[in-house]
Amino acid sequence: MTYLTNDMFDQGVYFDLQTTRPRRRTGGMELLCNGVLGNGVSEVPVTVRSWRDCVDIAFGSGELFSFVEERTIRRMLGKLVQELALENDSENIPGDLLLM
Q1: For residue 68, what are the domain limits?
Q2: Does 74 fall in a domain?
Q3: Does residue 13 fall inside a structural domain?
Q4: Burial of 31 (0-12, 13-18, 19+ CB in 10 A)
Q5: Band of the pLDDT at 98, cuts 50, 70, 90?
Q6: Cα–Cα distances in Å, from 25 out to 11, 28, 66?
Q7: Number of domains in the chain
Q8: I need a surface site. Which of 50, 66, 84, 99 has the fewest CB within 10 A?
Q9: pLDDT at residue 96 is higher than 60
Q10: What DSSP string describes the chain?
Q11: Is the pTM of this model over 0.85?
Q12: b/e 62-71 (16+ beta carbons within 10 angstroms → b)
């Protein structure tokens, strides 16, 4: 579980994502994450897909966005998933290339 920010009632907003093994697709690697986003009072399911410098975030229905701005959460999750994707890409590159 990872803390993101506070909502309007100063409750912590967190997410818990499970990543699948990155899949090779034409033009790059696809990373798919499924999980939950919540604040202790309300939780919504979330699916995040990262592919070719693009991040697609799909939220389920719930009351969470009555407490926190959706745009802020999308930006934060997108940034975190892009970092995960970069880590996974570097793991798939042979060690000799990482030293260059």
Answers
A1: 2-92
A2: yes
A3: yes
A4: buried
A5: very low
A6: 39, 5, 37
A7: 1
A8: 99
A9: no
A10: -EEEEE-TTSPEEEEEEEEPPPEEETTEEEEEEEEEEE-SS-EEEEEEEEETTEEEEEE-S-SGGGTS-HHHHHHHHHHHHHHHHHHHHHHTS-HHHHT-
A11: no
A12: eebbebbeee
Whole-angstrom distance, CA of residue 12 vs CA of residue 83: 22
Residues 17-26: b if buried by 16+ CB within 10 A, e if exposed: bebeebeeee
With beta carbons less than 8 A apart as the criterion, state whether 48 and 57 touch: yes
- Asked if residue 20 is part of any domain, the answer here is yes
Domain assignment present for 39:
yes
Identity of the amino acid at 34: N
The pair of three-digit structure tokens given for residue 54, joined into one six-digit string: 């693009």
pLDDT of residue 97: 35
The pLDDT of residue 80 is 81
Residues 14-70: tens digit of each pLDDT: 888 887 777 777 767 778 888 899 988 889 999 888 877 788 889 998 888 888 888
